[in-house]
Design brief:
Elements (H helix, E strand, L loop, with lengths): L3 H17 L12 H12 L26 E17 L17 E11 L3 E10 L26 E8 L4 E8 L19 E10 L2 E9 L16 E10 L3 E11 L12 H6 L4 E14 L2 E11 L15 E14 L2 E12 L14 E5 L4 E5 L8 E12 L2 E12 L23 E13 L2 E12 L2 E14 L3
Antiparallel strand pairs: 1-2, 1-20, 2-3, 3-4, 4-5, 5-6, 6-7, 7-8, 8-9, 9-10, 10-11, 11-12, 12-13, 13-16, 14-15, 16-17, 17-18, 18-19, 19-20
């Protein structure tokens, strides 16, 4: 009963969509330079960005209504040579809750082609060192784990998509980011990749998205077999105007055996309960009150304590999470400038569940070990955070800086007992902090030099990292 009330809201909105079958584009590809430029131009014009997550690496070619749309294709190759140092390293920064996010790719290769507006494909290989501890170099050097300590899932993106308007179908592997902010309570591009089938129908002001995916669920590296398969099922409805947008999302994690009802909106998440399942409702939206300025937010519910309505309930509290963000994009002497700020907080049971198989954790199999990270929030359960960042570009030089301050309840994790515990409500005893700066200088059309220092603080201890790399890339980056 504790989930019913929240999902009745989603049922009503799905009924409206079923009557209209009109949807609008909302999901964003934040890694595509063309998409970033389109986002900036739209915000500066006083509109929401023309979001498009379907992988279109090339812009639509010019054509007349009577002329056939040509097939466009290309390849990209990026090689990065570099290394880094670390002072006073701490195990704290290697936990999944606080992944440093150091880009340590040695080789990236992309092959893509499309008939704009009809179909296309993309394959992307990404080879990098995944040695334990601090990543000292992009070179894949032998260590005590393996003579080739590399991530074995080299094909990190592999897409085939079709666009028989108003429908869109996408099949394959890759990262996905759902929501307008740098972080998300649904899926974030901080997750390496998801294997998925994704479809949508759109038109007018509305859009309806449906994703069926299987995240990585291996508990140990090496030759350890998969212990279970976790299916991620997402339904999302959005309404959009020029300057504001509202969306409702429902996702469900379920362990097979599956039945058809597992894929129905609302039904399986709180009614049939035919298999262990973990579901959440997330409300989101964004608004451009003035050109160049945008405010955004997400609010999620994992469970709702129905006793507040006088309905008997099991001993689980209302489990909630929220993120609020604001962004300002402008031009300083014709140079693009982006300022971003975000505040968020998760309940001490957010992403947790009574059944260990249903916890919202993403397991990534690396060389000889397994890394884990939260699947539906940036820092995991029981955490409050403030993130502030700035990005400025002047000719061949770009500067990006980010400050993260976060506070996690002591002893809170995905293994926290799934019951009431008032001692875990509120903030933790002490905050941690991380400050990073990245300077990138484009030396020539195919060459770039990057320098990225970072400083971290936790429980009275200070540590630091610094990284220098030289990149060479062919084709459009």
């Amino acid at each position: 009963m504790h989930r019913c009330a929240a999902f009745l809201i989603f049922l009503g909105l799905m009924t409206v969509v079923g009557q209209n079958l009109l949807v609008a584009q909302a999901l964003q590809d934040r890694t595509n330079p063309q998409q970033l430029a389109a986002t900036r131009n739209a915000v500066l014009a006083g509109n929401l960005p023309p979001s498009d997550t379907w992988p279109q690496p090339t812009p639509p070619p010019p054509s007349t209504p009577d002329a056939p749309v040509p097939f466009t294709d290309g390849t990209n190759l990026l090689i990065s040579l570099g290394g880094g140092v670390q002072v006073n390293g701490q195990d704290f920064w290697n936990q999944y809750l606080f992944n440093p996010g150091v880009d340590n790719s040695l080789l990236r290769f992309t092959l893509h082609g499309e008939v704009a507006g009809q179909w296309g494909f993309l394959m992307h290989a990404d080879v990098y060192d995944d040695s334990t501890g601090f990543l000292n170099t992009t070179l894949i050097l032998p260590n005590d784990t393996s003579v080739v300590p590399a991530e074995h899932h080299w094909l990190t993106e592999s897409w085939l998509w079709f666009e028989p308007k108003p429908f869109e179908i996408q099949i394959g592997r890759g990262p996905v980011h759902i929501g307008p902010m740098d972080n998300s309570l649904i899926l974030s591009d901080s997750i390496p990749f998801m294997d998925m089938i994704r479809s949508s129908v759109s038109g007018g002001h509305w859009r309806w998205d449906w994703i069926i995916a299987t995240p990585e669920t291996r508990l140990d590296g090496g030759n350890t077999p998969v212990e279970f398969t976790l299916v991620y099922n997402l339904h999302r409805v959005e309404y959009r105007e020029d300057t504001w947008q509202f969306d409702v999302s429902e996702y469900n994690l379920v362990v097979p055996p599956l039945v058809l009802a597992d894929f129905f909106p609302v039904t399986s998440t709180h009614q049939t309960d035919m298999a262990p399942n973990h579901n959440a409702l997330v409300l989101g939206g964004q608004w451009v009150p003035a050109p160049g300025y945008r405010v955004m937010g997400q609010y999620g519910l994992n469970a709702l304590d129905s006793r507040i309505f006088g309905i008997p309930n099991n001993p689980v509290p209302t489990i909630w999470a929220f993120i609020l963000g604001t962004e300002w994009q402008t031009e300083a002497a014709d140079d693009p400038l982006r300022l971003y700020a975000e505040v968020g907080m998760t309940h001490y049971l957010w992403g947790n569940y009574g059944d260990p198989e249903m916890q919202a954790i993403y397991y990534q199999v690396l060389d000889g070990y397994t890394a884990s990270m939260p699947l539906t929030s940036p820092y995991g359960p029981g955490t409050a955070w403030v993130n502030v960042s700035a990005r400025w570009t002047h000719g061949p030089v770009s500067l990006e800086t980010k400050l993260e301050v976060f506070d996690t309840q002591t002893d809170v994790s995905f293994s926290t007992p799934y019951v009431y515990n008032w001692a875990l409500e509120g903030l933790g005893p002490s905050a941690a902090e991380r400050l990073s700066v990245k300077v990138r200088w484009t030396l020539a059309p195919d060459w770039a030099l990057s320098f990225q220092p970072a400083q971290m603080y936790n429980d009275g201890q200070v540590s630091a990292q610094a990284r220098l790399s030289l990149d060479w890339g062919s084709g459009k980056q």
